[in-house]
Amino acid sequence: QVQLVESGGGLVQPGGSLRLSCTASRSAFSIYYMGWHRRPPGKERELVAGSTSGGIADYADSVKGRFTISRDNAKNTMYLQMNNLKPEDTAVYYCLAKTGRGNYWGQGTQVTVSS
User: What is the pLDDT of residues 48-87, one digit of tens each?
Assistant: First the structure.
């Protein structure tokens, strides 16, 4: 069992920045992939960014050049640095961890981009 705790969401103006954090409750050794998904209001959940344990990252086209995913395996923590935020980035952001025994999700953190 892996528990994930997200933090860092909030309200920000367009063009602003936020950094989301996701901390796993157990050693990152068993986690081979971590990622961020989001669910915009009234829409399906979608991939934002992900990273393998080896540091290979992928991003949704809509966030490339604005968002950066990183991992600190020593702290069992993953980050999502979000810059130049747009109103369409408004969503609940979820952390995902993939292990050999299954996938685990965080509870979600709200990000609202509005003036």
Answer: 999 988 888 999 999 999 999 998 888 888 999 999 999 9
Q: Taking the mean position of all CA atoms in its chain, how far away is CA 111? A: 11
- Cβ(38)–Cβ(45) below 8 Å: yes
Q: Contact, 113 vs 91, CB < 8 A?
A: no
Sign of CA dihedral 58, 62, 99, 26: positive
For 45-53, the CB contacts below 8 A with 24+ separation are 45/94, 48/80, 48/93, 49/80, 50/96, 51/78, 53/28
